[in-house]
Protein backbone atom coordinates (compact mmCIF):
# COMPACT_ATOMS: atom_id res chain seq x y z
CA UNK A 1 0.00 0.00 0.00
CA UNK A 2 1.94 3.01 -1.27
CA UNK A 3 1.07 6.61 -0.34
CA UNK A 4 -1.58 8.04 -2.62
CA UNK A 5 -0.70 10.78 -5.08
CA UNK A 6 -2.41 13.96 -3.97
CA UNK A 7 -3.73 17.03 -5.72
CA UNK A 8 -5.05 18.86 -2.67
CA UNK A 9 -3.81 21.32 -0.08
CA UNK A 10 -4.12 18.67 2.66
CA UNK A 11 -0.66 17.09 2.60
CA UNK A 12 -1.57 14.57 5.33
CA UNK A 13 -3.95 12.63 3.11
CA UNK A 14 -1.35 11.00 0.86
CA UNK A 15 0.25 8.82 3.51
CA UNK A 16 -2.66 8.99 5.95
CA UNK A 17 -5.35 7.66 3.62
CA UNK A 18 -3.07 4.82 2.52
CA UNK A 19 -2.24 3.97 6.14
CA UNK A 20 -5.90 3.78 7.15
CA UNK A 21 -6.80 1.80 4.04
CA UNK A 22 -3.95 -0.65 4.68
CA UNK A 23 -5.53 -1.51 8.01
CA UNK A 24 -8.45 -3.09 6.15
CA UNK A 25 -6.25 -5.54 4.27
CA UNK A 26 -6.06 -7.95 7.20
CA UNK A 27 -5.64 -11.24 5.33
CA UNK A 28 -9.16 -12.30 6.32
CA UNK A 29 -10.71 -13.41 3.03
CA UNK A 30 -8.19 -11.39 1.01
CA UNK A 31 -4.62 -10.07 0.89
CA UNK A 32 -2.76 -8.84 3.97
CA UNK A 33 -0.93 -5.52 3.75
CA UNK A 34 2.72 -5.11 4.60
CA UNK A 35 3.25 -3.07 7.77
CA UNK A 36 2.78 0.55 6.67
CA UNK A 37 5.82 1.96 8.44
CA UNK A 38 7.95 -0.69 6.72
CA UNK A 39 6.42 0.23 3.37
CA UNK A 40 6.99 3.95 3.90
CA UNK A 41 10.62 3.38 4.82
CA UNK A 42 11.23 1.32 1.66
CA UNK A 43 9.27 3.84 -0.45
CA UNK A 44 11.42 6.73 0.76
CA UNK A 45 14.63 4.80 0.21
CA UNK A 46 13.51 4.27 -3.40
CA UNK A 47 13.04 8.03 -3.86
CA UNK A 48 9.35 8.40 -3.05
CA UNK A 49 8.16 11.65 -1.53
CA UNK A 50 5.08 13.77 -0.89
CA UNK A 51 5.34 15.57 -4.23
CA UNK A 52 7.54 12.94 -5.90
CA UNK A 53 5.53 9.74 -6.56
CA UNK A 54 7.37 6.72 -7.86
CA UNK A 55 6.95 5.51 -11.42
CA UNK A 56 4.99 2.26 -11.54
CA UNK A 57 8.05 0.15 -12.40
CA UNK A 58 9.86 1.53 -9.35
CA UNK A 59 6.75 1.09 -7.20
CA UNK A 60 6.41 -2.53 -8.28
CA UNK A 61 10.10 -3.08 -7.48
CA UNK A 62 9.49 -1.76 -3.95
CA UNK A 63 6.55 -4.17 -3.55
CA UNK A 64 8.64 -7.11 -4.70
CA UNK A 65 11.48 -6.23 -2.30
CA UNK A 66 8.93 -6.26 0.51
CA UNK A 67 7.68 -9.69 -0.58
CA UNK A 68 4.31 -8.33 -1.73
CA UNK A 69 2.65 -9.89 -4.79
CA UNK A 70 0.15 -7.04 -5.13
CA UNK A 71 0.67 -3.29 -5.21
CA UNK A 72 -2.07 -0.79 -4.33
CA UNK A 73 -1.78 2.68 -5.86
CA UNK A 74 -4.19 5.57 -5.71
CA UNK A 75 -4.89 9.25 -6.30
CA UNK A 76 -6.70 11.88 -4.23
CA UNK A 77 -7.94 15.06 -5.93
CA UNK A 78 -9.43 17.90 -3.92
CA UNK A 79 -11.66 20.49 -5.56
CA UNK A 80 -14.28 22.83 -4.16
CA UNK A 81 -14.69 21.18 -0.77
CA UNK A 82 -14.89 17.67 -2.24
CA UNK A 83 -12.46 14.78 -2.56
CA UNK A 84 -12.23 12.32 -5.43
CA UNK A 85 -10.39 9.10 -4.70
CA UNK A 86 -9.28 6.43 -7.15
CA UNK A 87 -7.38 3.24 -6.33
CA UNK A 88 -6.37 0.02 -8.04
CA UNK A 89 -4.55 -3.23 -7.29
CA UNK A 90 -1.64 -4.26 -9.54
CA UNK A 91 0.33 -7.48 -9.84
CA UNK A 92 3.82 -6.49 -8.68
CA UNK A 93 5.53 -8.96 -11.06
CA UNK A 94 3.59 -8.38 -14.30
CA UNK A 95 1.93 -4.99 -13.87
CA UNK A 96 -1.47 -6.47 -14.71
CA UNK A 97 -4.57 -5.19 -12.93
CA UNK A 98 -5.97 -7.32 -10.11
CA UNK A 99 -9.67 -7.17 -9.28
CA UNK A 100 -11.91 -4.12 -9.45
CA UNK A 101 -11.00 -0.45 -9.80
CA UNK A 102 -12.23 1.94 -7.09
CA UNK A 103 -13.55 5.44 -7.82
CA UNK A 104 -15.42 7.34 -5.08
CA UNK A 105 -16.12 10.96 -4.19
CA UNK A 106 -17.49 12.90 -1.25
CA UNK A 107 -17.10 15.95 1.01
CA UNK A 108 -13.66 16.65 2.51
CA UNK A 109 -14.96 15.75 5.98
CA UNK A 110 -16.11 12.27 4.90
CA UNK A 111 -12.72 10.52 4.86
CA UNK A 112 -14.01 7.60 6.92
CA UNK A 113 -16.88 6.99 4.47
CA UNK A 114 -14.54 7.27 1.48
CA UNK A 115 -12.17 4.75 3.06
CA UNK A 116 -14.96 2.24 3.52
CA UNK A 117 -16.13 2.66 -0.04
CA UNK A 118 -12.63 2.24 -1.49
CA UNK A 119 -11.94 -0.84 0.64
CA UNK A 120 -15.27 -2.40 -0.33
CA UNK A 121 -14.57 -1.79 -4.02
CA UNK A 122 -11.07 -3.27 -3.86
CA UNK A 123 -11.83 -6.21 -1.57
CA UNK A 124 -15.41 -7.00 -2.58
CA UNK A 125 -18.76 -6.71 -0.84
CA UNK A 126 -17.73 -9.04 1.98
CA UNK A 127 -15.16 -6.48 3.08
CA UNK A 128 -17.84 -3.86 3.72
CA UNK A 129 -19.71 -6.23 6.01
CA UNK A 130 -16.56 -7.03 7.98
CA UNK A 131 -15.74 -3.33 8.31
CA UNK A 132 -19.19 -2.51 9.63
CA UNK A 133 -18.79 -5.23 12.28
CA UNK A 134 -15.37 -4.10 13.47
CA UNK A 135 -15.90 -0.32 13.06
CA UNK A 136 -12.25 0.36 13.78
CA UNK A 137 -12.15 3.72 12.01
CA UNK A 138 -13.53 6.88 13.55
CA UNK A 139 -16.46 8.61 11.86
CA UNK A 140 -15.38 11.84 13.57
CA UNK A 141 -13.48 14.00 11.02
CA UNK A 142 -11.60 15.87 13.77
CA UNK A 143 -10.50 12.61 15.38
CA UNK A 144 -9.26 11.27 12.06
CA UNK A 145 -7.48 14.53 11.26
CA UNK A 146 -5.65 14.59 14.62
CA UNK A 147 -4.75 10.92 14.21
CA UNK A 148 -3.21 11.53 10.78
CA UNK A 149 -1.29 14.53 12.14
CA UNK A 150 -0.01 12.34 14.98
CA UNK A 151 1.23 9.66 12.58
CA UNK A 152 3.18 12.22 10.56
CA UNK A 153 4.72 13.80 13.66
CA UNK A 154 5.54 10.38 15.13
CA UNK A 155 7.49 9.35 12.05
CA UNK A 156 9.33 12.67 12.02
CA UNK A 157 10.55 12.05 15.57
CA UNK A 158 8.43 14.81 17.10
CA UNK A 159 7.26 12.67 19.97
CA UNK A 160 5.58 15.12 22.37
CA UNK A 161 3.69 16.77 19.51
CA UNK A 162 2.63 13.36 18.19
CA UNK A 163 1.40 12.31 21.65
CA UNK A 164 -0.64 15.52 21.92
CA UNK A 165 -2.20 14.87 18.51
CA UNK A 166 -3.14 11.29 19.43
CA UNK A 167 -4.63 12.51 22.72
CA UNK A 168 -6.64 15.12 20.81
CA UNK A 169 -7.92 12.32 18.57
CA UNK A 170 -8.94 10.24 21.58
CA UNK A 171 -10.63 13.27 23.16
CA UNK A 172 -12.70 13.66 19.99
CA UNK A 173 -13.55 9.94 19.82
CA UNK A 174 -12.75 7.96 22.98
CA UNK A 175 -13.39 4.63 21.19
CA UNK A 176 -10.98 5.25 18.29
CA UNK A 177 -8.83 2.17 18.77
CA UNK A 178 -5.91 3.12 16.52
CA UNK A 179 -5.51 6.52 18.22
CA UNK A 180 -5.52 4.83 21.64
CA UNK A 181 -2.94 2.34 20.40
CA UNK A 182 -0.60 5.05 19.13
CA UNK A 183 -0.87 7.02 22.38
CA UNK A 184 -0.11 3.83 24.31
CA UNK A 185 2.87 3.26 22.02
CA UNK A 186 4.26 6.67 23.01
CA UNK A 187 3.85 5.91 26.72
CA UNK A 188 5.61 2.55 26.27
CA UNK A 189 8.51 4.24 24.50
CA UNK A 190 8.88 6.76 27.33
CA UNK A 191 7.84 6.17 30.93
CA UNK A 192 4.62 4.16 30.72
CA UNK A 193 2.59 6.88 32.45
CA UNK A 194 -0.95 8.02 31.80
CA UNK A 195 -2.82 4.76 32.20
CA UNK A 196 -2.92 4.19 28.43
CA UNK A 197 -2.49 0.44 28.78
CA UNK A 198 -5.82 -0.17 30.57
CA UNK A 199 -7.58 2.36 28.32
CA UNK A 200 -6.33 0.61 25.21
CA UNK A 201 -7.12 -2.84 26.61
CA UNK A 202 -10.72 -1.72 27.21
CA UNK A 203 -11.03 -1.12 23.45
CA UNK A 204 -8.89 -4.02 22.27
CA UNK A 205 -11.71 -5.30 20.04
CA UNK A 206 -11.44 -2.08 18.02
CA UNK A 207 -7.72 -2.39 17.33
CA UNK A 208 -6.53 -3.67 13.98
CA UNK A 209 -5.28 -7.27 14.06
CA UNK A 210 -1.68 -6.02 13.87
CA UNK A 211 -2.18 -3.49 16.65
CA UNK A 212 -3.86 -6.04 18.86
CA UNK A 213 -1.08 -8.60 18.33
CA UNK A 214 1.59 -6.03 19.27
CA UNK A 215 -0.41 -4.67 22.21
CA UNK A 216 -1.29 -8.03 23.76
CA UNK A 217 2.19 -9.41 23.15
CA UNK A 218 3.63 -6.45 25.04
CA UNK A 219 0.97 -5.59 27.63
CA UNK A 220 -0.60 -9.01 27.98
CA UNK A 221 -4.29 -9.79 28.28
CA UNK A 222 -4.68 -8.82 31.92
CA UNK A 223 -3.25 -11.97 33.54
CA UNK A 224 -0.03 -12.09 35.60
CA UNK A 225 3.04 -13.20 33.62
CA UNK A 226 6.55 -14.21 34.54
CA UNK A 227 9.44 -12.36 32.92
CA UNK A 228 10.13 -15.27 30.63
CA UNK A 229 6.49 -15.40 29.61
CA UNK A 230 6.55 -11.69 28.74
CA UNK A 231 9.65 -12.20 26.63
CA UNK A 232 8.29 -15.28 24.89
CA UNK A 233 4.92 -13.68 24.15
CA UNK A 234 6.53 -10.53 22.75
CA UNK A 235 8.85 -12.61 20.60
CA UNK A 236 6.01 -14.83 19.40
CA UNK A 237 3.99 -11.77 18.34
CA UNK A 238 6.98 -10.35 16.45
CA UNK A 239 7.69 -13.63 14.68
CA UNK A 240 4.04 -14.09 13.71
CA UNK A 241 3.77 -10.56 12.30
CA UNK A 242 7.23 -10.67 10.76
CA UNK A 243 7.26 -7.17 9.30
CA UNK A 244 6.17 -5.13 12.33
CA UNK A 245 8.99 -2.87 13.57
CA UNK A 246 7.02 -2.08 16.73
CA UNK A 247 6.80 -5.77 17.61
CA UNK A 248 10.53 -6.38 17.11
CA UNK A 249 11.36 -3.20 19.01
CA UNK A 250 9.30 -4.31 22.03
CA UNK A 251 11.07 -7.67 22.14
CA UNK A 252 14.42 -5.89 22.07
CA UNK A 253 13.33 -3.31 24.62
CA UNK A 254 12.29 -5.97 27.11
CA UNK A 255 15.42 -8.07 26.79
CA UNK A 256 17.60 -4.93 26.81
CA UNK A 257 16.30 -3.70 30.16
CA UNK A 258 15.32 -6.98 31.81
CA UNK A 259 17.22 -9.72 30.02
CA UNK A 260 19.94 -10.46 32.57
CA UNK A 261 17.81 -12.87 34.66
CA UNK A 262 16.32 -14.41 31.49
CA UNK A 263 19.27 -14.99 29.16
CA UNK A 264 22.23 -13.97 31.33
CA UNK A 265 24.20 -10.71 31.53
CA UNK A 266 26.56 -11.64 28.70
CA UNK A 267 23.76 -12.48 26.25
CA UNK A 268 21.20 -9.73 26.92
CA UNK A 269 22.85 -6.91 24.94
CA UNK A 270 23.80 -8.97 21.84
CA UNK A 271 20.28 -10.42 21.71
CA UNK A 272 18.66 -7.00 22.18
CA UNK A 273 20.86 -5.62 19.42
CA UNK A 274 19.62 -8.35 17.10
CA UNK A 275 15.98 -7.45 17.74
CA UNK A 276 16.54 -3.68 17.49
CA UNK A 277 18.37 -4.21 14.20
CA UNK A 278 15.38 -6.11 12.82
CA UNK A 279 13.13 -3.17 13.77
CA UNK A 280 15.46 -0.56 12.25
CA UNK A 281 15.91 -2.57 9.05
CA UNK A 282 12.13 -2.38 8.63
CA UNK A 283 11.77 1.26 9.66
CA UNK A 284 14.51 3.64 10.81
CA UNK A 285 12.25 6.17 12.50
CA UNK A 286 13.61 7.61 15.77
CA UNK A 287 11.59 5.49 18.21
CA UNK A 288 13.30 2.34 16.91
CA UNK A 289 16.78 3.87 16.78
CA UNK A 290 17.54 5.14 20.24
CA UNK A 291 18.37 1.92 22.13
CA UNK A 292 20.48 0.74 19.21
CA UNK A 293 22.40 3.99 19.48
CA UNK A 294 22.85 3.38 23.23
CA UNK A 295 24.31 -0.03 22.41
CA UNK A 296 26.69 1.57 19.93
CA UNK A 297 27.97 3.99 22.57
CA UNK A 298 28.15 1.58 25.52
CA UNK A 299 29.87 -1.15 23.46
CA UNK A 300 32.17 1.42 21.82
CA UNK A 301 31.01 0.27 18.37
CA UNK A 302 32.03 3.11 16.05
CA UNK A 303 30.94 1.19 12.94
CA UNK A 304 27.36 0.95 14.22
CA UNK A 305 27.42 4.61 15.30
CA UNK A 306 28.49 5.71 11.81
CA UNK A 307 25.71 3.61 10.30
CA UNK A 308 23.07 5.24 12.53
CA UNK A 309 24.20 8.84 12.05
CA UNK A 310 22.55 9.37 8.61
CA UNK A 311 19.22 8.16 10.00
CA UNK A 312 19.37 10.80 12.75
CA UNK A 313 20.36 13.49 10.30
CA UNK A 314 17.17 12.79 8.31
CA UNK A 315 14.71 13.20 11.17
CA UNK A 316 12.90 16.43 11.98
CA UNK A 317 12.38 15.90 15.71
CA UNK A 318 14.26 17.71 18.45
CA UNK A 319 16.46 14.70 19.28
CA UNK A 320 18.30 15.10 15.99
CA UNK A 321 20.65 17.66 17.56
CA UNK A 322 21.30 15.82 20.84
CA UNK A 323 21.78 12.35 19.40
CA UNK A 324 23.93 13.67 16.57
CA UNK A 325 26.05 15.39 19.24
CA UNK A 326 26.55 12.11 21.12
CA UNK A 327 27.54 10.24 17.95
CA UNK A 328 29.86 13.06 16.81
CA UNK A 329 31.52 13.17 20.25
CA UNK A 330 31.95 9.41 20.29
CA UNK A 331 33.48 9.43 16.79
CA UNK A 332 35.58 12.49 17.63
CA UNK A 333 34.09 14.16 14.54
CA UNK A 334 35.26 17.75 15.01
CA UNK A 335 33.59 19.00 11.83
CA UNK A 336 30.16 17.69 12.84
CA UNK A 337 30.55 19.05 16.38
CA UNK A 338 31.35 22.49 14.94
CA UNK A 339 28.22 22.35 12.74
CA UNK A 340 26.13 21.38 15.75
CA UNK A 341 27.63 24.23 17.81
CA UNK A 342 26.75 26.72 15.10
CA UNK A 343 23.22 25.37 14.73
CA UNK A 344 22.55 25.07 18.46
CA UNK A 345 19.71 23.06 20.04
CA UNK A 346 16.22 23.55 18.58
CA UNK A 347 14.24 26.36 20.19
CA UNK A 348 11.40 24.06 21.16
CA UNK A 349 13.65 21.51 22.84
CA UNK A 350 12.27 19.56 25.79
CA UNK A 351 13.87 17.35 28.41
CA UNK A 352 13.93 14.57 25.79
CA UNK A 353 16.98 16.35 24.36
CA UNK A 354 18.73 16.31 27.73
CA UNK A 355 17.89 12.62 28.12
CA UNK A 356 19.49 11.93 24.73
CA UNK A 357 22.77 13.43 25.96
CA UNK A 358 22.67 11.15 29.01
CA UNK A 359 23.01 8.20 26.66
CA UNK A 360 26.66 9.18 26.30
CA UNK A 361 27.46 8.77 30.00
CA UNK A 362 28.64 5.17 29.70
CA UNK A 363 30.93 5.81 26.73
CA UNK A 364 34.41 7.10 25.94
CA UNK A 365 33.00 10.59 25.33
CA UNK A 366 34.94 13.14 27.43
CA UNK A 367 32.88 14.64 30.25
CA UNK A 368 33.46 18.25 29.06
CA UNK A 369 31.72 17.45 25.75
CA UNK A 370 28.66 15.99 27.51
CA UNK A 371 28.60 18.94 29.90
CA UNK A 372 28.93 21.42 27.02
CA UNK A 373 25.88 19.98 25.26
CA UNK A 374 23.80 20.18 28.44
CA UNK A 375 24.92 23.75 29.13
CA UNK A 376 23.80 24.66 25.61
CA UNK A 377 20.44 23.06 26.35
CA UNK A 378 20.05 25.06 29.58
CA UNK A 379 20.17 28.19 27.43
CA UNK A 380 17.13 27.08 25.43
CA UNK A 381 14.05 28.78 26.80
CA UNK A 382 11.80 27.18 27.72
CA UNK A 383 13.22 23.68 28.09
CA UNK A 384 9.95 22.06 29.10
CA UNK A 385 10.03 18.76 30.98
CA UNK A 386 8.39 15.78 29.28
CA UNK A 387 7.04 12.97 31.48
CA UNK A 388 9.77 12.02 33.98
CA UNK A 389 12.82 12.82 31.89
CA UNK A 390 15.28 15.09 33.70
CA UNK A 391 15.92 18.71 32.90
CA UNK A 392 19.26 19.81 31.47
CA UNK A 393 20.51 20.88 34.92
CA UNK A 394 19.49 17.56 36.50
CA UNK A 395 21.16 15.78 33.61
CA UNK A 396 24.39 17.65 34.34
CA UNK A 397 24.14 16.40 37.92
CA UNK A 398 23.69 12.82 36.68
CA UNK A 399 26.60 13.02 34.23
CA UNK A 400 29.00 14.38 36.81
CA UNK A 401 27.96 12.00 39.58
CA UNK A 402 28.28 9.02 37.22
CA UNK A 403 31.73 10.23 36.19
CA UNK A 404 32.89 10.71 39.81
CA UNK A 405 32.78 14.53 39.79
CA UNK A 406 30.75 15.54 42.88
CA UNK A 407 31.93 19.18 42.98
CA UNK A 408 30.73 19.74 39.41
CA UNK A 409 27.52 17.84 40.21
CA UNK A 410 26.79 20.16 43.15
CA UNK A 411 27.41 23.19 40.96
CA UNK A 412 24.85 21.87 38.45
CA UNK A 413 22.36 21.11 41.23
CA UNK A 414 22.39 24.72 42.39
CA UNK A 415 20.81 25.63 39.06
CA UNK A 416 17.94 23.20 39.53
CA UNK A 417 14.69 24.00 41.33
CA UNK A 418 13.65 20.34 41.60
CA UNK A 419 16.37 17.99 42.88
CA UNK A 420 17.17 14.99 40.68
CA UNK A 421 15.30 12.68 43.03
CA UNK A 422 12.23 13.74 41.06
CA UNK A 423 13.67 11.68 38.20
CA UNK A 424 12.66 8.08 38.75
CA UNK A 425 15.78 6.55 37.17
CA UNK A 426 18.22 8.14 39.63
CA UNK A 427 18.12 6.25 42.91
CA UNK A 428 21.16 6.50 45.13
CA UNK A 429 23.74 3.81 44.88
CA UNK A 430 26.69 2.50 46.72
CA UNK A 431 27.57 0.33 49.65
CA UNK A 432 30.42 0.65 52.08
CA UNK A 433 33.53 2.19 50.61
CA UNK A 434 31.54 4.29 48.15
CA UNK A 435 31.03 7.98 48.85
CA UNK A 436 28.12 8.51 46.45
CA UNK A 437 25.32 8.15 48.99
CA UNK A 438 26.72 10.58 51.53
CA UNK A 439 27.38 13.11 48.79
CA UNK A 440 23.84 12.81 47.47
CA UNK A 441 22.33 13.28 50.91
CA UNK A 442 24.51 16.31 51.48
CA UNK A 443 23.22 17.75 48.23
CA UNK A 444 19.58 16.95 49.03
CA UNK A 445 19.42 17.27 52.84
CA UNK A 446 15.79 18.27 53.27
CA UNK A 447 12.53 16.40 52.84
CA UNK A 448 11.09 16.53 49.33
CA UNK A 449 7.52 17.57 48.72
CA UNK A 450 6.73 14.79 46.22
CA UNK A 451 5.94 11.36 47.69
CA UNK A 452 7.97 9.05 45.44
CA UNK A 453 11.22 11.06 45.57
CA UNK A 454 10.94 11.43 49.34
CA UNK A 455 10.41 7.66 49.68
CA UNK A 456 13.69 7.14 47.83
CA UNK A 457 15.47 9.66 50.04
CA UNK A 458 14.14 7.98 53.19
CA UNK A 459 15.27 4.60 51.85
CA UNK A 460 18.76 5.95 51.28
CA UNK A 461 19.00 7.43 54.77
CA UNK A 462 17.99 4.13 56.38
CA UNK A 463 20.37 2.17 54.17
CA UNK A 464 23.32 4.37 55.08
CA UNK A 465 22.61 3.75 58.75
CA UNK A 466 22.46 0.00 58.21
CA UNK A 467 25.70 0.13 56.26
CA UNK A 468 27.32 1.80 59.26
CA UNK A 469 25.95 -0.94 61.52
CA UNK A 470 23.37 1.29 63.20
CA UNK A 471 19.90 0.16 64.28
CA UNK A 472 17.03 1.38 62.10
CA UNK A 473 13.28 1.31 62.83
CA UNK A 474 11.65 -0.18 59.76
CA UNK A 475 7.99 0.12 60.72
CA UNK A 476 5.73 2.24 58.54
CA UNK A 477 5.37 4.95 61.18
CA UNK A 478 9.13 5.47 61.47
CA UNK A 479 10.19 5.00 57.87
CA UNK A 480 8.16 6.48 55.02
CA UNK A 481 9.28 4.42 52.05
CA UNK A 482 8.04 1.69 49.72
CA UNK A 483 7.33 -1.91 50.65
CA UNK A 484 10.10 -3.03 48.32
CA UNK A 485 12.69 -0.92 50.10
CA UNK A 486 11.39 -1.92 53.51
CA UNK A 487 11.63 -5.65 52.68
CA UNK A 488 15.20 -5.34 51.41
CA UNK A 489 16.27 -3.23 54.39
CA UNK A 490 14.70 -5.76 56.74
CA UNK A 491 16.77 -8.51 55.09
CA UNK A 492 19.85 -6.30 55.44
CA UNK A 493 19.20 -5.79 59.16
CA UNK A 494 18.81 -9.56 59.61
CA UNK A 495 22.02 -10.12 57.65
CA UNK A 496 23.86 -7.66 59.89
CA UNK A 497 22.56 -9.53 62.94
CA UNK A 498 23.47 -12.96 61.45
CA UNK A 499 19.78 -13.94 61.48
CA UNK A 500 19.08 -14.05 57.74
CA UNK A 501 16.99 -17.13 56.95
CA UNK A 502 16.90 -19.04 53.68
CA UNK A 503 13.33 -17.80 53.08
CA UNK A 504 14.47 -14.19 53.56
CA UNK A 505 17.35 -14.80 51.15
CA UNK A 506 14.90 -16.21 48.61
CA UNK A 507 12.82 -13.03 48.95
CA UNK A 508 15.88 -10.90 48.23
CA UNK A 509 16.74 -13.12 45.27
CA UNK A 510 13.24 -12.80 43.77
CA UNK A 511 13.22 -9.05 44.40
CA UNK A 512 16.52 -8.62 42.56
CA UNK A 513 15.32 -10.81 39.70
CA UNK A 514 12.18 -8.66 39.43
CA UNK A 515 13.99 -5.31 39.31
CA UNK A 516 12.95 -2.82 36.65
CA UNK A 517 14.15 0.69 35.94
CA UNK A 518 11.03 2.07 37.60
CA UNK A 519 11.40 0.19 40.90
CA UNK A 520 15.16 -0.34 41.20
CA UNK A 521 16.82 1.37 44.17
CA UNK A 522 20.29 0.60 42.93
CA UNK A 523 21.60 -1.45 45.85
CA UNK A 524 19.45 -4.59 45.94
CA UNK A 525 21.76 -6.56 43.66
CA UNK A 526 24.85 -5.54 45.60
CA UNK A 527 23.30 -6.49 48.92
CA UNK A 528 22.49 -9.93 47.50
CA UNK A 529 26.05 -10.14 46.20
CA UNK A 530 27.42 -9.25 49.63
CA UNK A 531 25.30 -11.96 51.28
CA UNK A 532 26.55 -14.66 48.91
CA UNK A 533 30.15 -13.50 49.29
CA UNK A 534 29.84 -13.69 53.07
CA UNK A 535 28.70 -17.31 52.63
CA UNK A 536 31.79 -18.05 50.56
CA UNK A 537 29.93 -18.35 47.24
CA UNK A 538 31.93 -16.08 44.93
CA UNK A 539 30.21 -17.34 41.77
CA UNK A 540 26.72 -16.50 43.07
CA UNK A 541 28.02 -13.16 44.38
CA UNK A 542 29.20 -12.21 40.89
CA UNK A 543 25.96 -13.40 39.29
CA UNK A 544 23.89 -11.38 41.76
CA UNK A 545 25.94 -8.23 41.22
CA UNK A 546 25.38 -8.33 37.48
CA UNK A 547 21.63 -8.95 37.81
CA UNK A 548 20.34 -5.38 37.57
CA UNK A 549 18.08 -3.63 35.07
CA UNK A 550 19.97 -2.34 32.07
CA UNK A 551 20.68 1.37 31.99
CA UNK A 552 23.31 3.41 30.17
CA UNK A 553 23.72 6.07 32.84
CA UNK A 554 23.44 6.61 36.56
CA UNK A 555 25.68 6.99 39.59
CA UNK A 556 25.75 3.23 40.10
CA UNK A 557 27.71 2.40 36.94
CA UNK A 558 31.16 3.09 38.38
CA UNK A 559 30.70 1.38 41.77
CA UNK A 560 29.14 -1.66 40.11
CA UNK A 561 32.03 -1.99 37.66
CA UNK A 562 34.51 -1.67 40.50
CA UNK A 563 32.82 -4.49 42.43
CA UNK A 564 32.49 -6.54 39.26
CA UNK A 565 36.24 -6.40 38.70
CA UNK A 566 36.91 -7.47 42.28
CA UNK A 567 34.50 -10.42 42.03
CA UNK A 568 35.90 -11.55 38.68
CA UNK A 569 39.27 -11.76 40.47
CA UNK A 570 37.64 -13.75 43.26
CA UNK A 571 36.41 -16.14 40.56
CA UNK A 572 39.95 -16.35 39.08
CA UNK A 573 38.98 -14.61 35.84
CA UNK A 574 41.75 -12.03 35.49
CA UNK A 575 40.93 -11.11 31.89
CA UNK A 576 37.32 -10.18 32.69
CA UNK A 577 38.48 -8.38 35.85
CA UNK A 578 40.80 -6.18 33.79
CA UNK A 579 37.98 -5.44 31.34
CA UNK A 580 35.67 -4.30 34.16
CA UNK A 581 38.37 -2.23 35.81
CA UNK A 582 39.33 -0.58 32.51
CA UNK A 583 35.68 0.27 31.90
CA UNK A 584 35.59 1.79 35.40
CA UNK A 585 38.73 3.83 34.74
CA UNK A 586 37.28 5.15 31.48
CA UNK A 587 34.42 6.66 33.49
CA UNK A 588 36.82 8.13 36.06
CA UNK A 589 39.34 9.77 33.71
CA UNK A 590 38.63 13.24 35.08
CA UNK A 591 37.43 12.25 38.57
CA UNK A 592 37.33 14.73 41.43
CA UNK A 593 37.92 14.11 45.16
CA UNK A 594 37.11 11.83 46.92
CA UNK A 595 37.29 9.53 43.87
CA UNK A 596 40.80 10.39 42.65
CA UNK A 597 42.62 8.11 45.08
CA UNK A 598 40.30 5.20 44.29
CA UNK A 599 40.83 5.69 40.57
CA UNK A 600 44.61 5.80 40.92
CA UNK A 601 44.74 2.67 43.08
CA UNK A 602 42.68 0.70 40.55
CA UNK A 603 44.85 2.02 37.73
CA UNK A 604 47.89 0.63 39.57
CA UNK A 605 46.08 -2.68 40.16
CA UNK A 606 45.26 -3.01 36.45
CA UNK A 607 48.91 -2.44 35.58
CA UNK A 608 49.93 -5.29 37.92
CA UNK A 609 47.21 -7.61 36.60
CA UNK A 610 48.19 -6.89 33.02
CA UNK A 611 51.82 -7.72 33.76
CA UNK A 612 50.67 -10.97 35.33
CA UNK A 613 48.86 -12.25 32.22
CA UNK A 614 51.14 -10.79 29.52
CA UNK A 615 54.10 -13.10 28.76
Written account of the structure:
The protein has 615 residues and is mostly helical. Among the domains are: 5-137, 3-Layer(aba) Sandwich (Rossmann fold); 320-418, no CATH class. The chain is 60% helix and 6% strand. The protein contains 31 helices and four strands. The chain has helices at 13-22, 36-45, 56-65, 111-123, 125-134, 141-156, 159-172, 177-189, 196-202, 209-219, 227-241, 245-258, 260-263, 268-282, 286-298, 302-314, 319-331, 334-343, 351-358, 367-378, 392-402, 406-413, 436-443, 451-467, 483-496, 502-513, 524-534, 538-545, 557-570, 574-587, 596-613, and strands at residues 5-7, 70-79, 82-91, 97-107. Strands 1-2-3-4 form a four-stranded mixed sheet. Residues 125-135 and 422-433 have low confidence and may be disordered.
Main attributes?
615 residues; Rossmann fold; 31 helices; elongated; 4-stranded mixed sheet; mainly alpha
What's the topology here?
Blueprint: E1 5-7, H1 13-22, H2 36-45, H3 56-65, E2 70-79, E3 82-91, E4 97-107, H4 111-123, H5 125-134, H6 141-156, H7 159-172, H8 177-189, H9 196-202, H10 209-219, H11 227-241, H12 245-258, H13 260-263, H14 268-282, H15 286-298, H16 302-314, H17 319-331, H18 334-343, H19 351-358, H20 367-378, H21 392-402, H22 406-413, H23 436-443, H24 451-467, H25 483-496, H26 502-513, H27 524-534, H28 538-545, H29 557-570, H30 574-587, H31 596-613
Parallel strand pairs: 1-2
Antiparallel strand pairs: 2-3, 3-4
Helix pairs in contact: 1-6, 4-5, 6-7, 7-8, 8-9, 10-11, 10-12, 11-12, 12-14, 14-15, 15-16, 15-17, 16-17, 17-18, 17-19, 19-20, 19-21, 20-21, 21-22, 24-25, 25-26, 26-27, 27-28, 28-29, 29-30, 30-31
